[in-house]
Amino acid sequence: MAINLPGLADIKAISKPLLANLQKLGIVDVQGLLLHLPLRYVDETHITAIRDLRSGEQAQVEGEIVHAEVQYKPRKALIAQLQDAGGQLLVLRFLHFYPSQIAALKVGTKLRALGEVRQGFFGYEMVHPQCKSVRDETPVKETLTPVYPTTAGLSQASLRKWISWALNNGDLSETLPAFAYEPQALPSFAQSLKNLHHPAPEADLYQLEDHVSPYWQRLAFDELLAQQLSMRRHYARRRSIGAPALKPSKALITALLRSLPFALTSAQQKVAVEIGNDLTQNHPMQRLLQGDVGSGKTIVAAMGALQAIENGWQAAIMAPTEILAEQHYKKMQDWLAPLNIKVTWLSGSQNKTDRAISLEAIADGTAQLVVGTHALFQEQVVFAKLGLAIIDEQHRFGVHQRLSLRQKGQTSKTKAPHQLMMSATPIPRTLSMSYYADLDVSVIDELPPGRTPVATKLVADARRDEVLTRVREACEQGSQAYWVCPLIEESEALQLKTANDTYAWLQESFPELRVGLVHGRMKTAEKQAVMAAFTAGEIQLLVATTVIEVGVDVPNASLMVIEHAERMGLSQLHQLRGRVGRGAAKSACILLYQNKLSDTARARLKIIYESSDGFEIAKADLALRGPGEFLGLRQSGVPMLKIADLERDTELLETAQGLAEQLLKEYPTYVDKHLERWLSRAEELVKV
Ligand code: ADP
Ligand code: MG
Questions:
Q1: Domains in the chain and their CATH numbers?
Q2: Nearest residue CA, atom 15 of ligand 1?
């Protein structure tokens, strides 16, 4: 039942250069040829009489050249007149031409011209039509002619030839049972391919080119279904591994909650229950906790950790930057030390002695909660009994890094720790249904009460003096402020210089204020000292690079200035802005921009100005950048959809989701066959 997918390299008639060109288009096997779908079509299926032509339409006419000359005024052009059987004339005009074309348009030649008709000075004309000399008996095409996406050096003719060949020689057999597609009025796989590559003359071109024809929809459905099947199978495979079943916490969580100065929001309670339930299972949790900046994910993570600890297991929290990890460490200390829980710190920049002490505590199990950076998954780190791994800002980590943390706790092939990933970049629903279908998702969809919304202002760089006044006022009133330096992607050295210059300039501008500087190239101890001073209120104005983008939590800071905001991405701006508005004071975020904005930069600033809802912003970000860029690192492990479009095909996605569960349960052989067709070229999917 398996589909045989010969590689194109095995086909003798395909030359090396052709093979290389096909590869550039991602085509390496017959299946790839079949699924290389046309961008658009041209109609060579009938001949239009010149008297029936209409301006603006594509048409094919046939006739005899009755006049041809090269004109030099008003500019050089090859002009020919074609007369058809009805006796009418049509002008063919070429502004660029070769001598061979002059020869091909000799008076007396019979030819077909295909092009767009327009009203010229001397009646209808076609500019640069596609011409083909014909004899009386040359038949017209029977189907519409596909125009494929291609690459330099690969002609349409050659693509058409090989794709036709694939249609005749490839495997077009059905991979799905009829009940999977017929109720949705979708055609068979074979029918779909034939109609997309070679549509009948009467086919609805608009429908085809807009990708809403049932044929395109069928392939989009197949692709979405394959994605669901592979993600869900992967999910099931991980679920089949064992994990410690952690009984609900009786004492520690209650004690923690009692010690807090606030009560959980109902959204926090809801996700805490979801996580708590997962932890009681004897297979590993694989959950993504999403919540907008400031929604309070950290406390939820701490509750999960306590459930593990109360059951005698260790928990670990990993954060992507030292500043954030350090902050988590402090917070966990504050929260958990009173409960007599040993929290251990591990980072790459620790001195040798401290590090050795930490490593030992992790290995002998006295470290109950370990907080750290990437250092957590280095080789020397051995956990005595890791029950739960928590990864904050998961999108900042590569697929492999997340995988290795899970393997850390994997004491045997059959047992793995529970895993909780957290993300402040909300993932729009369609993405979470598709690219994240291998995870369970919890969402904190409400912010703690008492937050005052951040007022966002767009200010042209020329008016930065007014901004200085704002900063002075805020600091004089006892608030604190961030000044975020421009992002300079091209050069780290330049980035550093800009940060130093900005720092010097602000120190000069505000001799009466205590100004601090933090950037990515500082030593960890220096960074920590600066952050501690800012948290304690000793520094009033903190000049920072985007290192503060993730997670930093200083409630007394109520003003943020972002320089060159037009250079930053939407989620980055949203994250940065989320650093203020964390206390009761009225907060503001000032986006300084350089005039001469590009269209996308303008669109981004408009969105961030108008919305403060992370989900809205994420949706807009997705629309601006597309799923590939939006997903960032994750994409390194996940093949992108090529035919389906999540926005257009949301309904198909929903159907595919339901059907995938049914097929996996009841029709595993169909699943195998379908995946083999659709994922044959995909690298083994590494997902964590
Ligand atoms: P994020 O989801 O961005 O990681 P944090 O966990 O850092 O957010 O929480 C942001 C701030 O809100 C912290 O100072 C935290 O202590 C506080 N916080 C969390 N939950 C609540 C709540 N239910 N009520 C009030 N404040 C809360
Ligand atoms: Mg956080």
A1: 8-41+145-210 (no CATH), 46-133 (2.40.50.140), 252-444 (3.40.50.300), 454-611 (3.40.50.300)
A2: 296
Each residue's pLDDT tens digit, 259-300: 999 999 999 999 999 999 999 999 999 999 999 888 999 999
- Per-residue pLDDT tens over the stretch 292-349: 888 999 999 999 999 999 999 999 999 988 888 988 999 999 999 999 999 999 998 8
Q: Are 193 and 172 in contact (CB under 8 A)?
A: yes
pLDDT at 317: 95
- Residue 484, both tokens: 């975020």
Please work out whether the CB of residue 47 comes within 6 Å of at least one atom of ligand 1: no
What span, in angstroms and rounded, lies between the C-alpha atoms of 164 and 407?
47
pLDDT at site 631: 74
Single-letter code of the amino acid located at 247: K
Question: What mean pLDDT is reported for the chain?
Answer: 89
Please tell me if the CB atom of residue 445 comes closer than 6 angstroms to any atom of ligand 1.
Answer: no
pLDDT range class, residue 523, cuts 50, 70, 90: confident
Contacts of 258 (CB under 8 A, 6+ apart): none
> Under 8 Å CB-to-CB from 216, ≥6 apart: which residues?
37, 192, 196, 208, 643
How far does the centroid of ligand 1 lie from the alpha carbon of residue 574, in Å?
17
Which ligand is closest to the CA of 392, given by its number?
2
Question: Model confidence over 461-506: pLDDT tens digits?
Answer: 999 899 999 999 999 999 999 999 887 777 878 888 889 999 999 9
Tokens 């989320």 correspond to 578
- Distance, in Å, from the CA atom of 488 to the CA atom of 323, rounded to the nearest integer, reads 21
Q: Which atom of ligand 1 is found nearest the CA of 291?
A: 2
Ligand 1 pocket test, candidate residues 335, 553, 580, most atoms within 8 A of CB: 553
Contacts for 450-454 with beta carbons within 8 Å, 24 or more apart?
A: 450/584, 451/294, 451/581, 451/582, 452/581, 452/584, 452/585, 452/586, 452/587, 453/581, 453/612, 454/577, 454/580, 454/581, 454/587, 454/588, 454/589, 454/612
How far apart, in Å, are the Cα atoms of 680 and each of 92, 172, 358, 436, 672? 48, 15, 45, 21, 11
d(C-alpha 184, C-alpha 192), whole Å: 14
CA–CA gap between residue 290 and residue 308 (Å, rounded): 21
User: Does the CB atom of residue 298 touch ligand 1 within 6 A?
Assistant: yes
Q: For position 680, what pLDDT does the model report?
A: 59
Name the residue type at position 275. Answer: I
